[in-house]
């Protein structure tokens, strides 16, 4: 029973990472600002895991200049992105994978 649970959790994490890699990382690869820098900016502005994830989701679903954490120069260079084409559940999974990939909370000694 426990083994099945662990396998199910691992598969869920792989799906999350897959959505994140194929939809998020793939888009950001061509930018001169790494995807990690966006993450650290969100943490700087919103602090907690819940607030960061909610802000990212809100921006990706309804992008607006007022919601962006990008500095003005980068906003001028790249503009405001189009709303995410991902269904809400997949978007949440991608955001969870993003948090897992770049969060340093709980990893500092």
Characterise the protein shown here:
Helix content is 68%, strand content 0%. It has one domain. With 109 residues, the chain is an all-alpha fold. Helix 1 (2-28) packs across helix 5 (88-102), helix 2 packs across helix 3 (49-61) and helix 3 (49-61) packs across helix 5. It has 5 helices and no strands. The protein has helices at residues 2-28, 35-46, 49-61, 72-78, 88-102. The protein is globular, with a radius of gyration of 15 Å.
What's this model, at a glance?
The protein has five helices and no strands. The protein is an all-alpha fold.
Number of DSSP helices?
5
Strand content: under 5%
Query: How would you sum up the major sheet?
Result: none
Encode the helix/strand succession as letters.
HHHHH
**Shape, principal axes of CA atoms:** globular
As residue ranges, the low-confidence spans are 2-16
**pLDDT averaged over residues:** 79
- Find the count of extended strands (DSSP E, 2+ residues): 0
Distance between the termini: 34 Å
Rounded to an integer in angstroms, the radius of gyration calculated over CA atoms is: 15 Å
Return the structural class.
Answer: mainly alpha
Q: How many domain regions?
A: 1
Quaternary class = single chain
What percent of residues adopt helix (DSSP H or I)? 55-70%
């Amino acid at each position: 029973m426990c083994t099945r649970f662990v396998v199910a959790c691992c598969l869920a994490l792989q799906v999350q990472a897959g959505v994140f890699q194929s939809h998020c990382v793939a888009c950001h690869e061509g930018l001169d600002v790494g995807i990690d820098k966006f993450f650290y900016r969100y943490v700087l502005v919103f602090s907690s895991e819940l607030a960061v994830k909610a802000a990212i989701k809100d921006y990706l679903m309804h992008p607006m200049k007022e919601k962006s954490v990008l500095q003005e120069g980068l906003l001028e260079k790249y503009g405001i992105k189009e709303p995410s084409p991902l269904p809400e559940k997949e978007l949440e999974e991608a955001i969870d994978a993003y948090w897992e990939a770049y969060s340093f909370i709980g990893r500092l000694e």
